[in-house]
Design brief:
mainly alpha, two-stranded antiparallel sheet, 4 helices
């Protein structure tokens, strides 16, 4: 069961530019540039899931 704090984190949405400027995602900034679309907003959970799916993707 999610706590109230976890639920509120899921509902806050950020733009692509806000996420690219954040310290939290500094190490994967290039990945975010490829994954996130301009003009859309994302929750932190959505971004984390997209990054994880990208990392697990099979190449070749």
């Amino acid at each position: 069961m999610k706590t109230k704090q976890e639920s509120s984190k899921e509902t806050v949405r950020f733009t692509r530019q806000q996420l690219l400027a954040s310290q939290r995602y500094a190490a994967v900034r290039d990945t975010l540039c490829a994954l996130l679309k301009e003009g859309e907003s994302y929750t932190l959970g959505e971004v984390d899931r997209n990054i994880e799916a990208f990392r697990k993707r099979r190449i070749g």
